[in-house]
Design a protein that fits this description.
The complex is a heterodimer of chains A (about 400) and B (about 270). By secondary structure, chain A is an alpha/beta fold. Chain A has helices at about 5-10, 30-45, 50-60, 70-80, 95-110, 125-135, 145-150, 155-160, 175-190, 205-215, 215-230, 245-250, 280-285, 320-330, 340-355, 360-375, 395-400; strands at about 15-20, 20-25, 70, 80-85, 115-120, 140-145, 165-170, 195, 235-240, 260-270, 285-290, 290-295, 330-340, 380-385. Chain B is globular. In chain B, about 55% of the residues are buried. The chains are: A alpha/beta (about 400), B alpha/beta (about 270).
């Protein structure tokens, strides 16, 4: 299907649907808040004052635009297409997540909410939320699975230093999906004074819309930088997909450019055939969770399946509804790489370019290297380096059997 | 007239209020649920809300979350819940059963297949916590065609326009959630509930049942005074959790809890 600007403008539709996906599947208590948020966001989206403040913060607080870096040595060693890196890891707080939290915290302020809640997996969204709350003087509560607290302890401490309260979630699988459940539960109880900053392009409408809009700065910059540096559009974009916010931010401004191939890389864990993975687009089916209809990992009875990934940020059984739509219409390719391949990607980028990616990002790196190797030298592949790997030192050291 | 409508009409004729207990199917074990349902009826239940366990019950507090986990540990599936209702119907053809749960297990079965199976089992109403009427346009006609009542939630945050719209999509009764929060949390403010329910009565002719925060005879009576029925959930589920080791003791404990509520509600009858 050839996408046009017109078609994209019409999505999501009035009910928050991207084709068969998205929507607002929440309990009644939250419904009015979602309608208010949608109404206010649509108003502020076109408000020059709001946009100017958002742009100013991205420039002077986050440090945008982030560089587009030509990974010359990695390209040479790979022996195929040129590999370029969009350096979201250089943002303040070390990941793309802050683009969205800046935007949503501004919304919270415009709506007069004093208390902010967030869910987090790897802790990057939690840190980015705690950061903007510290700056705006907002009370901040972050929900994080007990298992993730264990494997991402540096980020937990960062959140605490920033003044956030970190709530350990002990229900279910004790990872990101359960953190999101508990954040929703808190929101229902405190809906009058609380703004829920969702970290990914999932959740009930209008979240997939506004997170995509805030993250699209990644793709807009990449488009401009790539034209400027290489004189043409990239041939392929590669981004990791958990919920899918860095991927949609990168892809969205290129959706109507048919020549640009889009690759979303899911967490293949121990391998798709093992069942131990977090790749709903590769191996799941449509269902309803966390307020939206989308591809999910579930059993034959509709119970949400446990997931596995070496990276906490991709360890999620669902995915943003817009990705589900892009998959069905065939505009983006969704692939997966295993834990081991991701670790290889991590080591490769670290050793060859001196850039240490987050384990989430390492999935995109691993796939992009394979992809580039199969392409001609005059082709351009851009990887979204969505986050830096400092937070993963402990996990890598454990895998290497080293105590740090 | 549906079984739910019939029961609520007859209660209204007698000036009585509906007592609607909730338990999670498969908790503490699949083999016990049907027996517990009969116990609830013997103790005075007019309608039973039977919870379909889900791995991610976002609108529920810890008590019902843990009930879901217990039920799922034994592999309780929607198919098995429907089988329980079918077995219950062998002895009780009068008490309406409302399945309460989340959308995904029902979708996974296939909505039409589910609607057929629900009717076949003897289910009377469906309450899907995460399915607002706005998203129910495909499934609602399937229910209507089979005379299954679609029961929707109203909340303290629901605006008048939505109360009207939701009531139009509802049949049987509407379920008013008494406070902002998950099940089993928070404290009910009876005065606030009274004024909101009175207001809902102005906007719809459907019976209004109130749930969340009803834990004993006193709260049941206070809420029963201003509504058409009360839904009792977490306190029962908590009783199941505490008595799960002894099935006979469990039945006695549930009965002891429900009886005084029945009496308190009936003492309101004029």
């Amino acid at each position: 299907m050839k996408l046009t600007e017109e078609m994209l403008k019409a999505l999501p539709d009035a009910r928050g649907h991207f084709g068969a996906y998205g929507g607002r599947f929440v309990s009644e208590t939250l419904f009015d808040s979602l309608l208010t948020l949608e109404r206010e966001y649509k108003r502020l989206k076109d408000d020059p004052e709001f946009q100017a403040e958002f742009d100013r913060d991205l420039a002077h607080y986050v440090g945008r635009p982030s560089p587009l870096y030509f990974a010359e040595r990695l390209s040479r060693e790979t022996g195929g297409a040129q590999i370029w890196l969009k350096r979201e890891d250089l943002n303040h707080t070390g990941a793309h997540k802050v683009n969205n939290t800046i935007g949503q915290a501004l919304l919270a302020r415009f709506l007069g909410k004093k208390r902010v809640i967030a869910e987090t997996g790897a802790g990057q969204h939690g840190v980015a939320t705690a950061t903007v709350c510290a700056r705006l003087g907002l009370e901040c509560h972050v929900f994080m699975g007990e298992e993730d607290i264990r494997r991402q302890s540096p980020n937990v401490y960062r959140m605490k230093l920033l003044g956030a309260e970190v709530h350990s979630v002990t229900s279910g699988t004790r990872t990101l999906k359960d953190a999101m459940n508990d954040a929703m539960r808190d929101w229902v109880a405190n809906v009058d004074d609380t703004f829920y900053i969702i970290g990914t392009v999932a959740g009930p409408h209008p979240y997939p819309l506004l997170v995509r809009d805030f993250q699209s700065v990644i793709g807009r910059e990449t488009r401009e930088q790539c034209l400027d540096r290489t004189g043409k559009l990239p041939d392929a974009l590669v981004a990791c997909v958990g919920g899918g916010s860095n991927a949609i931010g990168m892809f969205y401004p290129f959706l109507t450019d048919e020549s640009v191939e889009l690759y979303g890389v899911e967490a293949g864990g121990l391998g798709i055939e093992s069942g131990q993975h977090a790749a709903p687009l590769s191996a799941g089916r449509p269902g309803v969770l966390h307020g939206n209809r989308t591809y999910l990992m579930e059993d034959e009875n509709g119970q949400i399946a446990g997931t596995h990934s070496v990276s906490a940020g991709l360890d999620y059984p669902g995915v943003g509804p817009e990705h589900s739509w892009l998959k069905d219409i065939g505009r983006a390719h969704y692939v997966s790489v295993t834990d081991d391949e991701a670790l290889d990607g991590f080591r490769k980028l670290t050793r060859v370019e001196g850039i240490m990616p987050a384990l989430e990002t390492a999935h995109a790196v691993a796939y992009a290297i394979k992809l580039a190797a199969s392409m001609d030298k005059d082709k351009v592949v851009v990887i979204n380096i969505s986050g830096r790997g400092d937070k993963d030192m402990q996990t890598i050291a454990e895998i290497d059997g080293i105590e740090v | 007239m549906s079984r739910i409508e019939g029961v609520l009409k007859s209660l209204k004729g007698q000036g009585r209020k509906a007592l609607i207990p909730y338990i999670t199917a498969g908790d503490p074990h699949l083999d016990q649920t049907v027996d517990l349902m009969h116990t609830l009826v013997d103790a005075g239940a007019d309608i039973i809300e039977l919870g379909v366990p889900f791995s991610d019950p976002m609108a529920d507090g810890p008590v019902i979350q843990q009930a879901c986990e217990r039920a799922l540990r034994h592999g309780t599936s929607l198919r098995q819940v429907l089988a329980m209702v079918k077995t219950f119907r062998e002895k009780d053809d009068a008490t309406p059963i409302v399945l309460m749960g989340y959308l995904n297990p029902m979708e996974a079965m296939g909505q039409e297949k589910f609607a057929d199976a629900a009717v076949d089992a003897g289910v009377d109403g469906i309450l899907t916590v995460d399915l607002p009427p706005e998203e129910a346009d495909e499934v609602a006609p399937l229910f209507t065609a089979r005379n299954l009542d679609a029961i929707f939630l109203l909340a303290p945050t629901t605006t008048d326009d939505r109360i009207r719209a939701i009531s139009e999509h509802s049949s049987g009764y509407v379920y008013y959630v008494s406070f902002k929060g998950v099940t089993g949390a928070g404290k009910i403010d009876v005065d606030e509930v009274a004024s909101k329910v009175a207001h809902i009565h102005e906007l719809t002719a459907l019976p209004v049942a109130v749930g969340f925060g009803i834990r004993d005879a006193a709260t049941a009576a206070a809420v029963g005074r201003v509504s058409d029925g009360v839904i009792v959930g977490s306190v029962l589920v908590d009783t199941i959790a505490r008595n799960q080791a002894d099935p006979d003791q469990l039945k006695r404990a549930l009965s002891d809890l429900l009886h005084p509520m029945r009496e308190a509600l009936d003492s309101l009858a004029s």
